[in-house]
Specification:
With 247 residues, the chain is an alpha+beta fold. 27% of the residues lie in helices and 34% in strands. The strands form three sheets. The protein has a seven-stranded mixed β-sheet with strand order 1-2-5-9-8-7-6, sandwiched between helices. One of its GO terms (cellular component) is cytoplasm.
């Protein structure tokens, strides 16, 4: 992955560029990186702030032969790859909050956005967007996210080489992606559960329509959170915001 790359000093969103390149038919593994994004996209139509010189903003194009229902597995796989890369490159032990926030000391340091170009039963491309707060200092964090976000430099106490971290992320992503293509999701699921802070705890899953409190039993093959409510009914949560009891 990342053998072919497109680099921008500044762009709207690497995700938008990657969608265009995927449609134009670039090879699998194509990487889009930007030093700065002016209009970064987050999950659930939120904004994602990135800072010139301090953030990692990258999108990778994959072309797995999957059904659309299976693509959340790649989101979970990406979170594992990023946690492993951060550990290797900085020594910091991050954990994952379902589905794909990567946290250090309970604060968000990485956001992952997986989007597909697909028709009802065939995925053409999956665009994996990864945004990391790397060399932000406390005063650099936007006021909207101060208190809930952190950076690798803040947690480590020194700056981190962004290019080196991107290379390690690509290597980890490639290793896990190959494992996934040969062995399926079960090994990835086990790794994800090991790094997760949500499984085996009580939490609230909030969506625009409902809020369910329960015990997080694990994740399904489709990457859904399996949440057992107080009546013992197990809900499959496809998309929600999670509030952990400890927060
Ligand atoms: C989230 O936690 O809401 C996901 C944030 C994803 C941000 C990354 S940065 C690189 C790529 N380009 C974007 O515009 N978004 C993703």
């Amino acid at each position: 992955l990342g053998q072919e790359q497109t680099y921008f000093e500044s762009t709207e969103s690497t995700q938008i560029i990657a969608h265009k390149l995927a449609q134009e038919g670039v090879n699998e593994g194509h990487l889009v990186v930007a030093n700065e994004q002016t209009s970064g996209k987050g999950r659930l139509a939120r904004k994602w702030y990135s800072r010139a010189g301090a953030s990692i903003s990258m999108s990778v194009i994959l072309r797995p032969k999957l059904s659309p229902q299976e693509t959340p597995q790649l989101t979970l796989l990406t979170a594992v790859a990023v946690v492993r890369a951060i550990k290797k490159q900085t020594g910091l032990s991050a954990d994952i909050k379902w589905p794909n926030d990567v946290l250090l000391n309970g604060k968000k340091v990485v956001g992952i956005l997986t989007e597909m170009q697909a028709d009802p039963d065939f995925v053409h491309s999956v665009i994996i967007g990864i945004g990391i707060n790397v060399n932000h200092h406390a005063t650099d964090l936007d006021s909207e996210i101060l208190g809930i976000a952190t950076s690798l430099a803040i947690e480590k106490g020194s700056d981190v080489d962004r290019a080196a971290l991107i290379s390690v992320i690509l290597l980890e992503l490639e290793t896990l992606y190959e494992l996934y293509l040969t062995d399926g999701f079960s090994t990835i699921r086990t790794l994800w559960e090991t790094h997760s802070n949500s499984i085996g705890t009580y939490l609230t899953a909030k969506t625009a329509k409902s809020s369910i409190y329960g015990f997080a039993k694990g994740i399904s093959d489709e990457g859904c959170l399996l949440l057992e409510d107080q009546l013992g009914e197990v809900h499959q949560i496809y998309s929600a915001d999670i509030e952990l009891m400890s927060n």
